[in-house]
User: Fold this.
Amino acid sequence: MPASEGPGRRRDPEVDRRIAQAALEVFADTGWAGFAMETVARRAGVGKASLYLRWSSKETLLTDAVTLRLARVFDADTGTLHGDLVQLAGQVLDIYTGSTGRAASRLTLEAAAIPGVAAHYDAMRASQRHAARAIVRRGIDRGEVAGNVSVTLLLETLVGGAMMHALTTPPAALAADTSGYALRLVDFLLDAVTTQTAH
Assistant:
């Protein structure tokens, strides 16, 4: 919820969503150096006063935009490690290919240097890492992969592969085969992991 919301002020969730989306688009286009309340207001089609009634600074605006609109990783329990990892790979692809994908890419590079946003973004990423690790640990507990598998390396390979695919594949090809790629990536990774631990 915007930090500067006053008591009893009626909210319009659709306006908030539109402003949050505009904020992420402006950040994606210009980075933090070019991020300005006035530019966001123009992109959202609202008066600058509307932003200042809701947010006291551009830091709080961007933080709330990330909370409201940025896609994220969550723990999806399908009952199998394979199914869970396909869901995880799909979530990562969604983060970097959806309507906020360019903003997510820029945040990866710039968040640490943005006052007020860095701590929030770090907490969000930590929560996502926890969810991803829970997926693999369930698979280990169920005996689907060996207990000596490196959880970190498995997840870094999966997430890194999904990110690189999202960032380097032409948009038309990417849109046509996102779910198929997630499945192939997990099949390849689990085959490599089970082959390695079998020796």
